[in-house]
Predict the 3D structure of the following.
Amino acid sequence: MPQDERPRERLLRLGAGALSAAELLALLLGSGNAEGRSALGLAQALLAHYGRAGAGFEPGNGALASLGSAGAIDLSMVPGIGPAKACRIVAGLELGRRAAGARISKPAIRSPQDVVDLVCQHMRLLDREHFMALLLDTKNQLLASELIAVGSLDASLVHPREIFKAAVRYSAAAVILLHNHPSGDPTPSEADINCTRRLVEAGRVLGIGILDHIIIGDGRFVSCRESGIGGLWQGVQ
């Protein structure tokens, strides 16, 4: 098989959703058997075996349903599988079940205090300035937090493209900026205010709102929105 058509390379290039059930199963198997059958060949044979066992189902789904209910001992009895491959299959299918049933926790950000509660204990002890972006969905729920830069805040260090590249990647509707002052005093500097204003303007052009810029000190913080600085003011996005 050409290298770029192998399951691993196809997954890296196209994503897992583009792979067939046999290709995904081949990745779990990892290798073929001593008789010269490839991992993909073994996977196809395994699906065919459990497709027959899953009579009454649509063939593709029947094979997966029967395979999903099989135990490691049953799987290890299939020619070419063995205990090690059987355990990998059972573990992979169980992870899939758990992932399908898991709920992703997305904390909602309703106020500057919510942001501080989320990050303060970590950021207040840092010995250098860390500039971060919290990426939010349309309900102001947290999608991700991105570290944008480390070091003194200036125009060359915090560039709009780094922040909005992350926002676009996560399809974020809005962004909250934050950084720490290692001195412990969260009073915004002139550089903080200028940087905030610049990023707010860039967000308006792109249609991604900057909801706030929060500066964290030692046990204290300043919200640029609540303070009405940097082009932000309370109650307006």
Observations:
- The two ends are 55 Å apart (CA to CA).
- Confidence is low (pLDDT under 50) at residues 53-59.
- The chain has two domains: 3-101, 112-227.
- Strands lie at 130-136, 142-150, 174-180, 209-216, 221-223.
